[in-house]
Amino acid sequence: RGIQFASGGNYSTQIAWVNGTNDQYVRFHNGTSWSAWSKQAFNQNDLTNTAWITPTSQNGWKVMSGLRCAYRKALGLLFLDIHVYGGTNTSAIVIFNLPVGYRPANRSNHVPVISALGGSGFTLPGLQVLPSGDVQIFDQRNTDFHKLTVIIPME
């Protein structure tokens, strides 16, 4: 049905619609080269039908009963929903590895925001997602239960 083009400085965006469908595709130019075309999920069915994928845990991490450790990709974003405990007590330890297609282009660091801390010696854990796909937790105690929900832009 058409192509829309937008440009700003060295960066450009193209959006294309497929004839006879509502499918929309987008690609970006970073000043040097174009990214691959990727289908955009803009309707409720595309988003709600995007399955959560359960990764294989590493280094002794376990999923809390009744909860999940999972990821999915929709709308050009990577969603992580992590509920884990009991892993190896080492800083920057890998919880799981994301497969190709679900990895961010750059390292992504996250620190939880909470309203109150309880107990003494409480350590606020952080999460780091690397371009290699490693999802790491750091500054934590292995006896702690960690609930981390993160959204990462894929571009």
Provide keyphrases for this structure.
elongated; 43% strand; mainly beta; 1 helix; four-stranded antiparallel sheet
The CA-CA distance between the termini, in Å, is: 25 Å
Residue-averaged pLDDT, rounded?
A: 77
Low-confidence stretches: 114-122
The whole-angstrom Rg is: 19 Å
Give the beta-strand count.
12
Largest sheet: 4 strands, antiparallel
Widest beta sheet: strand line-up? 1-2-3-4
What does the secondary structure layout of this molecule look like, with pairings?
Blueprint: E1 2-8, E2 11-17, E3 24-29, E4 38-40, H1 44-48, E5 62-63, E6 69-74, E7 77-85, E8 93-97, E9 108-110, E10 126-129, E11 134-138, E12 145-153
Antiparallel strand pairs: 1-2, 2-3, 3-4, 5-7, 6-7, 7-12, 8-11, 9-10, 10-11
Outline:
By secondary structure, this protein is mainly beta. The protein has one helix at 44-48, and strands at 2-8, 11-17, 24-29, 38-40, 62-63, 69-74, 77-85, 93-97, 108-110, 126-129, 134-138, 145-153. It has a four-stranded antiparallel beta sheet with strand order 1-2-3-4, with no helix packed on it. Strands 5, 6, 7 and 12 form a four-stranded antiparallel beta sheet that branches. Strands 8-11-10-9 form a four-stranded antiparallel beta sheet, with no helix packed on it.
